[in-house]
Design a protein that fits this description.
Shape: rod-shaped
Largest sheet: none
Distance between the termini: 87 Å
Helix content: 55-70%
Structural class: mainly alpha
Radius of gyration: 30 Å
Number of domains: 3
Number of helices: 12
Length: 328
Amino acid sequence: MQLFNFAEAISISRRSPEKLFKILDLHDALGELLPDIDIVFESKTAESIRVQAAEILSRLAEAARGILSEFENAVLREPSRVPVPGGTIHPLTRYVMNYISLISDYKQTLIELIVSKPCSKIEEDRTTVALHLIWIIVILESNLEGKSHHYKDTSLAHLFMMNNVHYIVQKIKGSPELRGMIGDEYLKKLTGKFRLAATSYQRATWVRVLHCLRDEGLHVSGSFSSGVSKSVLRERFKSFNAIFEEVHRTQSTWFVPDTQLREELRISISEKLLPAYRSFLGRFRSHIESGRHPEQYIKYSWEDLDSAVLDFFEGNPGTQHLRKRSQG
């Protein structure tokens, strides 16, 4: 009776998320003991014990369902508004993904306990538990999307979403049980989302940098100086230097914690930036070097930029100065 009282007290206690797994452990243990309880207390006088055991099992099941439902609501309502520095992974993302990884370990128990589907049209052939897990991730994504709007820099908002959705994908891939429940179809959708966020980051940042390296507006018809306006060209180089230096100073403090993702992003940036800069430099260097103070306009070689890209997304605090590795 004391053991029953303990289990009953647990079943009616406050429904905090961390209690779910202990409740499921209790439910499994009592469920396994139930046949023995029926045998040991089979007499008519001991019927109340058999009834109480079954009632407590039912209450533990109800408590588990309630906690899972309240966890979903808590993820949706998580109120933090202070952006995480550098656009890195939000603590909520880590907590939720670790939590649902643990949930997947109790797959069989939860399949028995959860009978209601969440309001979602995702993958109707999935088990009810899998739908709950997908629904929690959908809610998490929605919350993260709201948090991304607290960044004043649009590029950083996209980087934040890229980091967090990538973390979700990696956690699913890292757990065979969870991956099996979530399914490759939904995993593919998530992968597409973090890649879209990465593309959106690049567009928000690098379109304005590369805009400085365009030919449009440089050529002057009828000019005796090879048809290129040196004043416009100087301004173009000055603008490029200023914008790139600002991007470098800012984004060296941003952080992409996954080393492979960080490297992929840098390579993608280099593949867009370096050919464009080398081409621009090759075509117009002579027009600047034939004038006064060329070093004020051609401040960096393409090797300098190549080296500078390696500083990006390291999360280095303080002002980052662009190093000049080579001259000329």
